[in-house]
Amino acid sequence: MKEMDNNLDAEVRLWQEKLFSRSIRRDHKLKRISGLIGSATNLQCLDISTGDGIISSHLRSLGGSWKTMVTTKDAAVSINYSLGEAIAVIENGKLPFEDHSFDRLVIVDTLKEFTDDYEFLHECHRVLKNDGWVIISEERRAPLGPVALLQRTFGLLPSSNEKNCRNGYKVHELFETLKDGFDVPETIVYSNVLLEFFATFGEVVQRMVTGGPCWLVREKAGQKELYNYRQIYGLASFAFPLMWLLSLLEFLPGQKLLIKSRRRLWRPRLQPKLIDGRSIAEAAINTKIGTAAPF
Questions:
Q1: Whole-prediction pTM
Q2: Domains identified in the chain, total number
Q3: Is residue 182 situated within a structural domain?
Q4: CATH number at residue 184
Q5: Closest listed residue to residue 170, CA positions, set 93, 49, 254, 240
Q6: Which one of 70, 184, 258, 268 is most buried, by most CB atoms within 10 A?
Q7: Helix H or strand E segment including 104
Q8: Is the residue at 39 inside a domain?
């Protein structure tokens, strides 16, 4: 019986690799994250994942020593299929590691799940070494864009899932959240709007077939899941040439964010206030340039 279970798990992993090979978006995400990390040889790294075990396993091929944590039990089960090890779930936004434990910390599409993302980044700052880096992959929030409107129509906005607290970030919002403890020398906006628009239809199909994203492997996955994977693989193979062509339209607005941030001393940057409690920006807005008169 155990041998049969092991064979089934191996087949699940094989199909997960096949499905990954037909996903332009996931492949681009992995390549861009890997490019920002570079060689991880001799580095201590932490990967915080939503449950995409293929991405986590491929990150480990960069070298170094890796640990993986997730935000939900379902994600832990999914990751286990690819990594074959027990995966801890983050509780109350706290990381169970000593100060200055890691050289690199990669947050893959999970920051929007934390109610207090600022405090969680403070926790990430604590476990990073003084010269450490955090790399954040997230959705670019564009509430009036065509992708968001289509997601809203089909109930696919991130906030439609109860585990997410927000629908992603605008670039300046991530800067604001990071500014007290990190410098941000590199920002990438990628995965163009047309690619994401058509990919949303693929997500609708995945939900109809499997009840969720195909990369999130359910506990005790069996023959039913393998059958579903075959169906999705066939559809993804058919759509692959179109998605590849759409991915070349890099001049169109991007829908995904990647930020690489260097750790520095944590120092809250408080906005200066005037004696009447207004910020300088507020005072400038309410005062005519060239005069101090309130008219």
A1: 0.88
A2: 1
A3: yes
A4: 3.40.50.150
A5: 254
A6: 70
A7: strand 102-108
A8: yes
